[in-house]
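Hello,

Following up on my earlier ticket. Below are the two sequence lines again, exactly as submitted.
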Amino acid sequence: MQIGVLGGGQLGRMMALAGYPLGLKFRFLESVQDAPVDDLADRVTARYDDEAALTRFAGGLDIITYEFENVPASSAKFLARSHAFFPPPDVLDVAQDRLTQKNFFKKLGIPTAPFAQVDSRADLDAAVQQHGLPGILKTRRSGYDGKGQMLLKSADDVERAWKTLGNSPLIFEGFVPFEREVSIVAARSRTGETAFYPLVENHHREGILRLTLAPAPNLTKELQAEAERCARRIFDDFNYVGVLTIEMFQHGGRLLVNEMATRVHNSGHWSIEGSETSQFENHLRAGLGLPLGLSHALHPSAMINLIGTTPPSEKILAIPGAHLHLYGKSAAPGRKLGHVTIVEPDTARLMEKVRQVQALL
Amino acid sequence: MQIGVLGGGQLGRMMALAGYPLGLKFRFLESVQDAPVDDLADRVTARYDDEAALTRFAGGLDIITYEFENVPASSAKFLARSHAFFPPPDVLDVAQDRLTQKNFFKKLGIPTAPFAQVDSRADLDAAVQQHGLPGILKTRRSGYDGKGQMLLKSADDVERAWKTLGNSPLIFEGFVPFEREVSIVAARSRTGETAFYPLVENHHREGILRLTLAPAPNLTKELQAEAERCARRIFDDFNYVGVLTIEMFQHGGRLLVNEMATRVHNSGHWSIEGSETSQFENHLRAGLGLPLGLSHALHPSAMINLIGTTPPSEKILAIPGAHLHLYGKSAAPGRKLGHVTIVEPDTARLMEKVRQVQALL
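Thanks for your patience. The regenerated structure is below:
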């Protein structure tokens, strides 16, 4: 089986590492030079909207997926005409536009923070008027890792944000109090089988994920069930195939959905060591219609991102049980270069090891 | 870091899969077309004794190792002149000759079955006379998976074995009663640090490993300590670097060493899921002088080899917790095409799943 993957970043790299033991072969399409998949798989270098290149890329592939959420939906649809493609390309129309995504959640009865479409300065003022400050102004498209969004606390912030972002279609999101950010990674096979990883707790800084604790500490059955219900509604509506990630805010016993990523996700990396089956393997199994693998947490895990620079490997590997994952990328501020996972039955010892890793960053 | 590996089979493939997360790059030297590493790494195709090709292969490499034990010692020594090379090339002189190996064990005070050098029919008769039948006649070089050896039970067998094997330098090994075959995988870093995996129990059929149970059921501390003492003596004598495997017979509370493999080993594959750190990762860490990773068994594990043919993947993956490893090889009788590992705290359930896998073979 030859798998095609749009995007050749670390998610693709880890997908290939998970897929080789299943006897799968990989070909990636990536637009930039020096991608994380270069060392370990075939790749075609081209723009994602170059249909001639897409055709060349697709030749001989059995099935195609993506690891990069900003793949043009039109390219996904183009490939889906000739090949099995997952997740279904329609999903991208929804996922790539924050406003469409929020309206989609509303349609499915999935609770979100209050939001308003902002196409003009007048829309922005009306949204601030209606929902109050603080709030967040976001571009509807192409934001990631905190890019394309600004926190509004004051009238001055509103003015500044409009000047910075006002050229793009926007969405205003009202502020909701929350205790923590959590996410769920779930998989649905083309056979309809589903698997849900436990909710995890995510810690961001400067808009970038720094730490994931899996399962989320003090996770209740009710909260897990609520997250799974959200995922199921999305799965059913799309007849979804593959891994889906939903990021949520927890407030009391309630979840408000923030956004979804229709792909494997940074907050699921712990599953490589922390679960029987990694999110990457289950994504591939889902696409191929193979039975999904067990997705419970074997023990409490922590995943610490390596951002901007990486400590010397020998220092990380000197921490007993620390699993190092480097992505083969050159250092740059804010760039995700790798991660470290620790799986440890004793929670106090887990957090002590997390601190040991963090002390190296 | 660019790692060179002599041999491009499944051991190399799993070594690369273990090394990519450490940020390592790989280049393989392999003499045959269609090798398991082809999909996922650079490779040079050449004979192992082609010095021009070795030089081409070695260009730009930081360190070189092997995954194939019949690499010519002269080639290893040639590469070691210009590059860091592990395990030390001298090891191959000993490991590749069963008689030299047995004499080496004797020198170190490591117990073995009785043995005798056989260079003539008269030698063979003398050996049979001295040690009695049954016994095993083996070629001193190039045997693996039961090839190049014959069991002698009768005078007829002696005659037949001499006709078949008599053209090569031979070793006669006296029969020793034993309850089971076990092996230990151990690693020694270039810093001198050591790590020992638990002794495992191995089940062969037709000379080929079929099943490994890790740790060996009813493993005692004393037996583990005895196996580690053997490994330490070999480590110290060679100033060894990398993973070493020692295959042994257990009789009562005693171990008799059968042979060593100076490389990662089929009986260590369980460690990919069954230990914090796989034998492949620890081999690389050892060569690079990185701290060795934890090598205890997380839970009881079983590794079942897929020989000759592979069942449909969906049948294996339908067994909860079954980890499939396919090597990308074409089917052929007696060929190792993959393996399945199960890690399961409950031993009865582990054995039930083993039977489920075996029922598919």
